[in-house]
Every structure is written in structure tokens, then in C-alpha cells.
Design a protein that fits this description.
Elements (H helix, E strand, L loop, with lengths): L6 E4 L7 H11 L3 E6 L2 H15 L3 E5 L5 H15 L4 E4 L14 H29 L2 E6 L3 H4 L6 H21 L4 E8 L7 H4 L2 H9 L9 H12 L10 E4 L7
Parallel strand pairs: 1-2, 1-4, 2-3, 4-5, 5-6, 6-7
Bound molecules: nicotinamide-adenine-dinucleotide.
The site of nicotinamide-adenine-dinucleotide has 28 residues, from helix 1.
Length: 251
């Protein structure tokens, strides 16, 4: 058990993708997990499933990362229940594809708010707790789009994800003296059951063809990297980005 006695809080962790897979992986390794997500019923259900399956403490809390009050409440409840926070997993991210000339202020603000500002908000709440503990792991999900952009229609998303990496490098320097590390994971295309409802078949095929490794990337691939960064083995790694792409980064 690589995370025994650790307490982890995760954002957007009740879907079918990376957040939930990471929560389950942390729980499998003995951590108590706080599942936060904008969808309340799914947060509670995910936490209940985890509790049953891995015999760890797990709670589900509704938390829309656009809402600072809900973030503060989630952190408060976590502290009341567990008294510490060892791991913050910033998973929330969203995209509203639109070419720049058609992009509305609203879609810019939502993409930035969910994908970048939430990382700042959650970190600002949790960092003082970790500083007092002299221990913490902050792991945020970015995207290879943050390095190299994406096809037309994703400028706000790519800018937000680049921002997550820059924010994390600065955070890593501020936090290091307190034995707190901060890193990001940059996936490329990671398949989950909702992907066919989000993208046309043709685009899915194109994204899969870009991956040199001969299978789809799945949420567990990202969860495995997160576990490494959260565990004792990751102690001396900070301010870094691990790309989980099956090699598509080289394309
Ligand atoms: N899936 C991919 O191909 C891929 C590739 C690169 C990066 N990413 C990034 O990985 C992260 C996870 O994506 P995923 O596709 O694995 O989905 P996921 O299942 O991990 O996340 C979906 C969940 O996010 C929740 N959510 C949406 N808006 C929210 C909000 N405002 N507040 C709180 N929760 C909210 C939803 O309720 C849903 O349960 C995102 O940051 C995404 O940008 C995904």
C-alpha cells in the first residue's frame, strides 16, 4: 500500500475518466479519498463504491470548481473529517471548441475558469494546510495541447493548459521549502465511454491514428503516473510535467 494514512482530495472525480480512475487508484493504495465533482449524486455514488470496494474512508462532495464558496466548503469538510490533506489532485478541465473569431467571452471564461482558475483556487485553499503539515503533493492535469496547441477551435483550452504548467512551476518553487511538491501530467487523447458522445467518429479515428503505441490511452494510464507522483517514490520530483501519450507527442 503506497498511500496508507494519506488523505487525497480530487476535483471532477465522479465521471468516467481520469478523475475517477485516479481516485480509485489512490484508494486501492490505502488513501482516504474525497471525491468532489459538480455532479452531486455521482460524487456520492462514486465515494460509496470506492468505500465498499477498497475498504477505505471515502466521501463525495458537490463542488463546482467555478464556485469559490463550494471549493472552500469542500476543503473545510475534508479538514473536519480527516484533519489533514496530503494530496490535491486538480483534474477539472473543460473545452468549448470554437474558432477565435467566433469565441464568446462566456466560452473563454468557462474554459479558463474550469481548467486554470480552479487550480489556483484549490491550491490557495489547500497550500496553507500542507505548509503547516510540512508535507503535500499537488498534481494537476494539463494536456499536450498546452505545449503544442491543437487543431483550430481550441485556443482557450490550450492557453489554459499552458497556464496550468506555468502556474505549477512557480508553485513548485514556493512550496518546496515546506516539503510540498507540485507537478503536472499532460495526457494526449485518453479514451473513455463518453468520448463517442463528444467527438465525431472521424475525429476519434484521426486522434487514435496519431498514437504510435498500438492501443488506446485509458484513464488508468494517467492514474498510474499520478500514483507515482503522489507516492514516496515521487518525493524528489517537483515542477515537472509527465506526458502520458503513447508517443503521440513526437508526431
Ligand atoms: N480525455 C482526454 O482525452 C484528455 C486529454 C488531455 C487532457 N485531458 C484533461 O484531463 C482531465 C479529465 O478529463 P477526462 O476526459 O478524463 O474526464 P473526467 O471524467 O476525469 O472528468 C469529467 C468530470 O468533470 C466534472 N466536471 C465538469 N465540469 C466541472 C466543474 N465545473 N466543476 C467540477 N466538476 C466538473 C463532470 O461532472 C465529470 O464528472 C481534464 O482536465 C481534461 O482537460 C483529457
Amino acid at each position: 500500500m503506497r498511500l496508507k494514512n494519506r488523505v487525497a482530495i480530487l476535483t471532477a472525480a465522479a465521471g468516467a475518466g481520469i478523475g475517477r480512475a485516479t481516485a480509485r487508484t489512490f484508494a486501492r493504495e490505502g488513501a482516504s479519498v474525497v471525491i468532489t465533482d459538480a455532479h452531486e449524486a455521482r460524487s456520492i455514488k462514486t465515494a460509496e463504491e470506492i468505500k465498499r470496494e477498497f475498504a477505505v474512508e471515502a466521501i463525495g462532495i458537490k463542488c463546482d470548481v467555478l464556485n469559490l464558496e463550494e471549493i472552500r466548503q469542500a476543503v473545510k469538510e475534508t479538514m473536519e473529517l480527516f484533519g489533514r490533506i496530503d494530496i490535491l489532485f486538480n483534474n477539472a478541465g473543460t473545452n468549448r471548441p470554437s474558432r477565435i473569431v467566433d469565441m464568446t467571452d462566456e466560452s473563454w471564461d468557462v474554459v479558463m475558469g474550469v481548467s486554470l482558475r480552479s487550480v489556483f483556487y484549490f491550491t490557495r485553499e489547500v497550500l496553507p494546510i500542507m505548509m503547516k503539515q510540512q508535507y503535500g503533493r499537488i498534481i494537476s492535469i494539463t494536456s499536450v495541447a498546452g505545449f503544442k496547441g491543437l487543431a483550430a477551435g481550441h485556443a482557450h483550452y490550450a492557453a489554459a493548459k499552458a497556464g496550468v504548467m506555468a502556474f505549477t512551476r512557480c508553485l513548485a518553487m514556493e512550496a518546496a521549502p515546506y516539503r510540498i511538491t507540485a507537478n503536472t501530467i499532460a495526457p494526449s487523447f485518453i479514451y473513455n465511454e463518453f468520448i463517442p458522445t463528444l467527438y465525431p467518429e472521424e475525429e476519434i479515428r484521426r486522434m487514435l491514428e496519431e498514437i504510435p503505441y498500438p492501443r488506446k490511452g485509458v484513464p488508468q494510464d494517467v492514474a498510474n503516473a499520478a500514483l507515482f507522483l503522489a507516492s514516496d517514490e515521487g518525493e524528489y520530483i517537483t515542477g515537472q510535467t509527465i506526458c502520458v501519450t503513447g508517443g503521440s507527442w513526437m508526431r
